[in-house]
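$ run holo --ligand "uridine-5'-diphosphate" --emit tokens
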Amino acid sequence: MAKILVTGGAGFIGSHLIERLLQRGDKVVCVDNYFTGQKKNIEPFLDNPNFSALEHDIVQPLHGIDANQIYNLACPASPIHYQFNPIKTIKTSTVGMVNMLGLAKRCGAKILQASTSEVYGDPHVHPQGESYWGNVNPIGIRSCYDEGKRVAETLCMDYHRSHNLDIRIIRIFNTYGPHMHPKDGRVVSNFIMEALEGKPITIYGDGTQTRSFCYVNDLVSGMMSMMDQDGFIGPVNLGNPVELSMKDLAKLVLKLTNSSSKIEYKDLPQDDPKQRQPDISLAKEKLSWEPTIDIETGLTKTIEYFRELR
Ligand code: NAD
Ligand code: UDP
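-- output --
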């Protein structure tokens, strides 16, 4: 039985990952400081003897625990949350990363780092392949997240080269689904909550900027394949290549919620990337992975989740 540590396990993606690992019969320890994570996301696992939860901040070293695998997901992911305390955000991706790499080294564990499409910044290459080095502002309001994640990738590679540590790097593109916090601030949860509450749908900028949205179950399958295969450390893009403008996303949410909310335009935040679409050829080749859930099906499931929350 593998013993698996999931940092950020009480968050949106982490809680889905834990559910799948427990279903497979693994022993799982969730490590979370509950900054953006919710205890109710892990509540269903508390009766499972293979599950335990540890309240811990990864910026502090973690002693007295062993694992065969570590999924490092701890880091706020929504711009409003990672900009709330930017110094803490960058510490989580740097000091926290060093702590988790040190733990992996001590235990001889494999470690998978949840990196992000944000390492490509506001990309000049479209779609984004893993060989693109990105266009990131090092001093802007998104830098605490983007640059933190870039340093985390560097740290993983240097631990791999210097200490032969068994690492995996995945670059996650925009992911959505149940367990997102309704006030998370990301576009999918905002649009759905606004539509369900009959409030105006807030589009930032003119709504022509694009993102490519992956349903969380698809993402988790890709993450687990990446951890479990041997001989490929990444980085690898994991995302759904179907690209959508924010205007089209708003229209789709309005249609699927049957809402009569109006659309309201607000200022575009600084350094907001204009376009983003993953090139997933590498994931297809190395992991035989590609998303299976289309945006209408995924949004419908997510809307159901938010409806029940209200
Ligand atoms: P989330 O905010 O729901 O989850 C992050 C979790 O990490 C939360 O439970 C939070 O409490 C915890 N956390 C934050 N700082 C911590 C610290 N210092 N110590 C311990 N725990 C800490 O976000 P998510 O969407 O589930 O994202 C999970 C991971 O995936 C993040 O690393 C994020 O950067 C990455 N990612 C997510 C997306 C996406 O679209 N959701 C895209 C790219 C990358
Ligand atoms: N966005 C929007 N309205 C919202 C929230 C976000 O138009 O209420 C836009 C945001 O400016 C960005 C896109 O939606 O262009 C995706 O934003 P999100 O914060 O979800 O993810 P990220 O920018 O990190 O990809």
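-- notes --
The pocket of uridine-5'-diphosphate (ligand 2) is lined by residues 78-79, 174, 186-187, 190, 202-204, 209, 211, 246, 269, 272 (CB under 6 Å).
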